[in-house]
Structures are given as C-alpha cells and as structure tokens.
Design a protein that fits this description.
Layout (H helix, E strand, L loop, with lengths): L8 H18 L8 H15 L6 H17 L1
Length: 73
C-alpha cells in the first residue's frame, strides 16, 4: 500500500487529495488497460513526495512532473 508509511492524518489526507488531483490531470493519457498499474505508480510517487511538498497543490504538481519525467525516460 503506497500510503501505509504515512502515519500523520494530515499527511494522509494531503496525499489522498493530491493523488486524486494528479490522477485527474494524467488519466486521459493512460490507456484503459494500464490505468490500475499507472494509478498505483502515481500513488507511490505522491507518497515519496509528501515530506518535501509545501502544500497539496505543490504535492500535486511535483507528482505530475515526476510521473511525466519517469514515463518519458
């Protein structure tokens, strides 16, 4: 579970909201057959960035940027 390492309820709520927002930005570019896998990958990215992001919007934009960079590599 990607968010299992988050113990602070505030961090967990931020991560969940950022995941939904980031997924909303990238979902249309994901083939339906890969949606579950890519959403999970995005969740791990969000989880890794919670500690360094200033707020939910920052977390969302960082996650989308990292996801797109890793997909292009």
């Amino acid at each position: 579970m990607p968010f299992s390492s988050l113990s602070d309820p505030t961090d967990l709520a931020r991560a969940d909201a950022a995941l939904e927002a980031a997924w909303g930005e990238i979902k249309s570019s994901i083939p339906p057959a890969f949606e579950e896998r890519e959403r999970s990958r995005l969740a791990y990215i969000v989880s890794a960035l919670v500690a360094v992001a200033g707020d939910e919007q920052d977390l969302t934009s960082r996650a989308v940027e990292r996801y797109r960079r890793s997909a292009a590599a």
